[in-house]
Design goal:
With 267 residues, the chain is mainly alpha-helical. It has 2 domains: 1-79 and 114-142; 80-113 and 143-266, no CATH class. It has helices at residues 9-22, 33-51, 59-94, 102-111, 119-134, 144-168, 171-191, 200-226, 232-260. The N and C termini lie far apart (48 Å). This is CHAD domain-containing protein. Pfam families: CHAD. Residues 3-265 form the CHAD domain. It comes from Halopseudomonas oceani.
């Protein structure tokens, strides 16, 4: 028998995350960079919670809700990525032997140009999240024990992708591993007793997620740089990017082993 929303802890958690993320824009204010970041995190948290319904909710319904949240996050990606890229370019440029030319910097900004969010976007976001919550699944079959099984399933998926990423060195696998690592972290946080401090596993998942996020930012900038005409400036920046990626991956691999254990890692 379906639970009422007030009796479903996962729904209550989802609503809490949505309310917190929408608070800065609920009065019609256009979302700034921090608000956009929080909205995207909210999408990830809700997608992670949806995974815990998998054993006893319709696959089609969960997939549909996941796609809705993915579209919300995708609509916000341009503004957030531009802000992150600006900071990353400044960091990398400061480590070059010669200053980055204004021409290259301008071209990089142009390739990532996106329309600034408006108050109309805030209205659309509020409506989109309301639609997700309105169709949120509720099931009397769900218990804490079932949810812990779901967390274990998510953790195993993250570990599987970590091994594949480490052993193949494919950037796309690192990115997929980041998604499932974040899911595992958010599910763990949901099931953890909030009265207690974060446990060791939560801290490791959080550190791993941060490093995988750094790698994804580097990969995004590298992809944009590769679309520009070759020049001495771009070659120097590309070389520095590759060094940062290599260093970042080595740190990630150490975190892979600490988080998931050494078994299955050949790197």
């Amino acid at each position: 028998m379906p639970l009422t929303p007030d009796a479903d802890p996962l729904y209550q958690a989802a609503r809490h995350h949505v309310r917190g993320a929408l608070l800065p824009i609920v009065n019609g204010t256009a979302p700034d960079a921090d608000a956009i970041h929080q909205l995207r995190v909210c999408c990830k948290r809700l997608r992670a919670l949806l995974q815990l319904y998998r054993p006893y909710a319709g696959h089609h319904r969960l997939r549909q809700l996941d796609q809705q949240l993915r579209q919300i996050a995708k609509a916000l990606a341009g503004s957030r990525d531009l802000h992150v890229q600006q900071q990353l370019i400044k960091q990398l440029a400061s480590s070059l032997d010669t200053p980055l030319s204004p021409t290259l910097n301008s071209r990089l900004m142009q390739t990532s140009h996106t329309r600034a969010p408006s108050s109309a976007d805030s209205e659309h976001l509020i409506a989109a999240f309301a639609a997700v919550l309105a169709d949120w699944p509720h099931s009397a079959s769900g218990t804490v024990d079932h949810w812990h099984v779901g967390l274990q399933r998510t953790f195993k998926q993250a570990r599987k992708l970590a091994r594949r990423a480490c052993n193949s060195d494919q950037d796309a696998l690192y990115h997929r591993c980041r998604k499932w690592t974040k899911y595992a972290l958010y599910q763990h946080e949901q099931l953890h007793d909030a009265r207690l401090p974060a446990d060791r596993q939560m801290k490791r998942l959080a550190r791993l997620g941060e490093r995988l996020g750094e790698l994804q930012d580097l990969c995004n900038l590298q992809a944009q740089l590769q679309r520009l005409p070759a020049s001495p400036d771009s070659a120097a920046l590309a070389a520095r990017l590759e060094q940062r990626k290599h260093h970042c991956k080595r740190r990630i691999i150490r975190l892979f082993i600490r988080t998931f254990g050494r078994g299955g890692f050949r790197c």
